TrEMBL record:
Native source species: Anser brachyrhynchus
GO-annotated biological processes: mitochondrial translation
Biased composition (Basic residues): 1-19
Region (Disordered): 1-56
Name under which the protein is recorded: Mitochondrial ribosomal protein L57
A cellular-component GO term for this protein: mitochondrial ribosome
Segments of skewed composition (Pro residues): 21-33
GO molecular function ontology, one term from the record: structural constituent of ribosome
Length: 163
């Protein structure tokens, strides 16, 4: 009876304990007037007053209690009532390592290799040569110029000029 009462479909509320039986434990005695016709009752199973917090109710397996415990509603990693993420030692060490790398990058970027005077026009000839080759390849792919007089010249067949 206890297993059916606390089944998977009707979980026990977390704030209530199962009720203790009303009759005292022991064999049931029939009333004296019906003693001749009564059959002997089988011995009753005794319910315990109830489990404490973190214990499973009598008649259920530990797995049932684990699966029916209160959980965080919805997705556990997003939303207002999300599960807090535990910060581990390896996470702290990885963050320190990334901060050290970033500090080293800032150090090297703050000290330029060339001064602005050295950097100004330092590769003028090379850039000029690259631009000339790019310009020549673009003009070689470009079609020749065309004129509208060439396209419309066939319309001048019937045109008569007076002289």
């Amino acid at each position: 009876m206890a297993a059916a009462r606390y089944s998977r479909h009707r979980p026990l509320p977390s704030n209530r304990r199962p009720r203790a039986p009303l009759a005292p434990p022991g064999p049931a005695r029939p009333p004296p007037a019906l003693a001749s016709r009564a059959r002997p009752n089988p011995p009753r199973r005794h319910l315990v007053a109830g489990p404490g917090p973190g214990q499973c109710p009598r008649g259920t397996m530990f797995l049932t209690t684990v699966l029916l415990r209160k959980r965080i509603p919805g997705k556990q990693w997003i939303g207002k009532y999300r599960r807090p993420r535990v910060v581990t030692l390896s996470m702290k060490q990885a963050m320190i390592r990334r901060l050290e790398i970033e500090a080293e990058n800032e150090y090297w970027l703050s000290r330029p290799y060339l001064t602005q005077e050295q950097e100004y026009n330092h590769n003028r000839e090379g850039r000029r040569a690259k631009w000339e080759t790019l310009k020549s390849t673009m003009t070689s792919k470009f079609p020749e110029h065309r004129y509208m007089s060439d396209h419309l010249n066939h319309l001048n067949v019937s045109k008569k000029w007076t002289s």
